[in-house]
Design goal:
With about 300 residues, the chain is mainly β. It has two domains: about 5-235, no CATH class; about 255-295, no CATH class. The chain is built from four helices and 15 strands. It has helices at about 5-15, 80-85, 260-265, 285-295, and strands at about 40-45, 55-60, 75-80, 90-100, 110-115, 130-135, 135-140, 140-150, 170-180, 185-190, 195-200, 200-210, 225-235, 255, 295. Strands 3-4-5-13-9-10 form a six-stranded antiparallel sheet. A five-stranded antiparallel sheet has the order 2-1-8-12-11, with no helix packed on it. A hairpin with a 2-residue loop joins strand 6 (about 130-135) and strand 7. The radius of gyration is 23 Å and the shape is elongated.
Length: about 300
């Protein structure tokens, strides 16, 4: 499938990122400042949590983290998982860059790019490939990018890439995956993604590559032992400003309560479109009757 000119342009910008350069997208997403729970891991074919993965690098929130990922900002390190647990985080050979832009059609595009700092492949001869699983030690055969976005999630201290789909829905329109081989060849795929929008704006994403594998069936090794940059660009439908559009709910929690009444009274007598439920150009008693008549929980559409 051919990529759209928009996506192709975003991919070109992403691939132009280097260790020393600033990664820049449109300014529309600059207020989103945390991409949480990002990691690169080695897995077996049958992943069985909590065992079954070797983490090569992760960026999780921790006190004093000087490398909080900034969407549309510079690349930041991923850390050694053991060092994070021990409380003395040490950077690995892998960095990540996150980006977000608002498209002209109202959709939201989010990117996550991983690359090694020394140009070597993600998996080398020195990388431990034995994974401890519930069934015992097994060889890892997949390199996986695991992207957890922390927006409005109490597990993460700062916001992330918001407006990315409706809670409980996939939310993705299209996804482009890419990786760059050691010889500079860039390989792309377009399709759906194993992702889920967990709450308004919060989503998880994972995409795997073979280790010592032939991704595009051209007879050459396209595995993680032969590429040093990879990532994805996902386009989401924007979330609705009010998930209960047929309900006089002003704060979007599908509950008409005192908070909505206070917001309503604050614009009494104005032409505020959100509180003018009957559309007559003024927030008045008829609108108040509508709000009070729907008091309590609203049914989602």
């Amino acid at each position: 499938m051919l990529k759209s000119s928009l996506t192709a342009g975003l991919l070109s910008a992403a691939l132009a990122t280097t260790v020393s350069s600033t990664h820049s997208f449109a300014s529309a997403g600059d207020s989103d400042d945390y991409v949480g729970g990002t990691a690169v891991v080695l897995l077996t074919d049958s992943f069985s949590p909590p065992a079954g993965a070797n983490v090569l690098g992760a960026n999780l929130p921790f006190p004093g983290n000087p490398y909080v990922p900034i969407l549309n900002g510079d690349p930041v390190p991923l850390y050694d998982a053991t060092s994070l647990i021990a409380g003395s985080p040490a950077p690995t050979n892998v960095i990540m860059t996150g980006g977000k832009t608002v498209n002209s059609d109202g959709t939201i595009t989010v990117s996550c790019i991983m690359q090694t700092t020394d140009g070597q492949p993600f998996v080398t001869a020195a990388t431990p490939l034995t994974v401890q699983t519930l069934a015992g030690p097994q060889p890892a055969n997949r390199f996986v990018v695991d992207f957890g976005n922390g927006y409005a999630n109490a597990a993460f201290p700062v916001n992330g890439a918001n407006d990315c789909g409706d809670a409980g829905d996939l939310g993705i329109i299209s996804v482009d995956y890419f990786h760059t081989k050691l010889n500079g060849t860039e390989l792309y795929e377009t399709g759906d993604a194993p992702a889920a929008v967990l709450e308004d704006g919060g989503f998880t994403f994972a995409w795997g590559f073979l280790i010592n594998g032939d991704t595009n069936a051209d007879g050459s090794n396209d595995g993680a032992d032969n590429f040093n940059r990879c990532g994805f660009i996902a386009t989401f439908a924007p979330i609705e400003s009010n998930p209960c559009p047929d309900c006089p709910d002003l704060d979007g929690d599908c509950l008409v309560d005192g908070a909505d009444l206070a917001a309503f009274l604050a614009v009494w007598g104005s032409d505020d479109p959100d509180s003018d439920f009957d559309g007559n150009g003024i927030v008045d008693g008829q609108d108040l009757a509508t709000l009070l008549g729907s008091w309590g929980f609203c049914a989602t559409p």
